[in-house]
Amino acid sequence: MWNTILFDLDGTLTDSGEGITRCVQYALKKVKGIDANLLDLRRFVGPPLKEEFIKYAHLTEEEGDLCVSAYRERYDSIGIYENRIYAGIRTLLKELKEEGMHLVLSSSKPTAYCMRILKYFDIYRYFDLVMGSQMDGRRTDKAEVIEEILDRLGMKDRRQEAVLVGDRNYDVVGAKKAGIGSIGVTYGYGSREELTKAWPDCIADTPEEVRNVLIGQYRDGRQAEPSRKTLEQPSFYEVSPTLHMESPGFAIWSVIWPPLLALAINLLLGALLGTVMAAAGGASAEEVRQQTIRLTLPLTAVMDFIYFVVMLIIFRDDERRRTAYGESDRLLQKKPFGIVAAVMVICLTLGAEFLISLLSSLIPSSSAYADFVQSFGEWPFWAVFLMIAVIGPLGEEYLFRAVVFRRLRDHLSVWAAAAISGAIFGIFHGNLEQGIPAAALGFVLALIYEHYGTLKASFFAHLGVNSFALIQQSLPEGEATSFGMGLAVICISILAVCAAVWIFYRDQKVNRI
Is 8 assigned a catalytic role? Predict the structure, then answer.
């Protein structure tokens, strides 16, 4: 049974002949001075571009590269849009996806161009993976493209489940080399005679016939596997159907190295501060200690800002990778996040933080943490707020939620990913007094991030917790432990429980939290 459908692009999904032939005509004229007839250039639709240039005009390798560069000059801004989608393709893709099949784009065109075309025609959302050639000319052979797809989908041992739909003999031959099925379509640029000579599994004359063949065989096979689960609708407990295929060693390392990088940044800036303090000649040991304490807070803010910049780059690269796999939106829930939701998540995290703090208060305070808190008094409140309540959560949310938790979610259920990322968040704080509340907070923040699908949610929750802690620190010691303060915290905790019920159970049928 074919459950993974690989589609060629040019001549199969879109009629791109005008753009391709005009760009080829432009390139031949510019590089070799050849005035080619557009009808003669239809042969360029489908095969790898450089090889076809060399065959058509008897070029050298270097001349072939020049023609490809000239071709892209026009194609990038004009030729890519001299294109139209075949009638019936949108319906075909929609129905295949609704049936539960996995759709993949397999093209000899560079992946970047493929994605632009799919988005231009608003059919990108139907594909789980988009795979083409590389801009430097590698991976242009259709069999190579298919092998890369099978590798990324973890289907090397399940080739019988994949089929390629294409319009040229190159597509059929590539599918046969890769050991997968093939369907030739005659409405594109390959004739029935050309396709017949390549011996595909079947030939279809219209997108409707392709639909009938694929859905018919899929339903027959599915009846033989009644327990089969499709991946069309994500659940709160799912893992990525494609990214989780990475090796366990690679997956573990991908989660561990970002916190290790952050730790290295900490050590580097700490060593820099130590060097500066050591160079302060004439200062007593106590003066050096006091100056070090005073600089701890801004140094922490600098580290958090560096985390934010570095992890933002890593996160964006991860999202591009997930987009290529069609997994960018599969796992995270997408719930509206406005002012009311922001207040609710802040209340939720405050309640959770308070309850855990009751337990962690039994742990003796470390001198390092006491010195860190002491340094707050050396700075204006607005500066402390900016560094602790804004810059701190910004850096930590990108590090521990956007990168660590998100990468764990590619491989694990939400509960496991939230627990592990929370534990890493706690360990990163370096002491039990902060580490235990941080681990619990990290678990809650991860669930909030998963629920809303936006980092703004976990950031506001984190900001609320840090802000409340600063307010507590700024109160005189007697007031901070007064009956009124305790009552206020209890009321906030009760409100947090109500918020949790309202947030996570109002859409229970969707989120199942």
Answer: yes
Please check whether residue 484 lies inside any domain of the structure.
yes
Could you give the count of Cα atoms lying within 13 Å of 63 in the half-sphere of its Cβ?
Answer: 16
| Host domain of residue 76 | 17-81
* 152 and 56 within one domain: no
Coil, strand, or helix at residue 6? strand
Check residue 103 and report its DSSP letter. E
Q: Could you tell me the strand order of the sheet in which 202-204 lies?
A: 129-133, 102-110, 4-7, 162-166, 181-185, 202-204
Listed residues 51, 81, 111: the one ending a domain: 81
User: What would the DSSP string read from start to end of 24-88?
Assistant: HHHHHHHHH-----GGGGGGGSSS-HHHHHHHHHT--HHHHHHHHHHHHHHHTTTGGGS-EEPTT
Measured between alpha carbons, how far is 9 from 45 in angstroms, rounded to an integer? 10
Domain-embedded: residue 50: yes
Which residue out of 8, 141, 167, 410 is catalytically annotated? 8
Q: Is 276 helix (H, G, I), strand (E, B) or coil?
A: helix
How many other CB atoms are found less than 10 A from the CB of residue 403? Answer: 27
Query: Is residue 341 a part of any domain in this protein?
Result: yes
Do 201 and 282 have their domain in common? no
Q: Are residues 403 and 460 in the same domain?
A: yes
Pick the last residue of a domain from 161, 190, 223: 223
pLDDT in tens, the chain (513 residues): 899 999 999 999 999 989 999 999 999 999 999 999 888 898 888 778 888 999 999 999 999 999 999 999 999 889 999 999 999 999 999 999 999 999 999 998 889 899 999 999 999 999 999 999 887 778 878 999 999 999 999 899 999 999 999 999 989 999 999 999 999 999 998 899 999 999 999 999 999 999 999 999 988 877 655 444 444 444 555 555 555 445 677 788 889 999 999 889 888 877 777 776 666 555 566 666 666 667 777 888 888 899 899 999 999 888 877 765 555 555 666 667 778 777 777 777 777 666 666 655 655 555 555 556 666 667 788 888 888 889 989 999 999 999 999 989 888 888 899 999 999 998 988 777 778 888 888 988 898 888 888 889 889 888 888 887 777 666 655 444 454 555 565 566 566 656 655 655 554 433 332
The closest alpha carbon to 223, from 215, 212, 231, belongs to 215
Angstrom distances, CA of residue 400 to CA of 152, 318, 426, 442: 26, 14, 10, 8
425 and 397 share one domain: yes
CA distance 327 to 229: 17
3-state secondary structure at position 188: coil
- Together in a domain, 214 and 295: no
Number of domains in the chain: 3
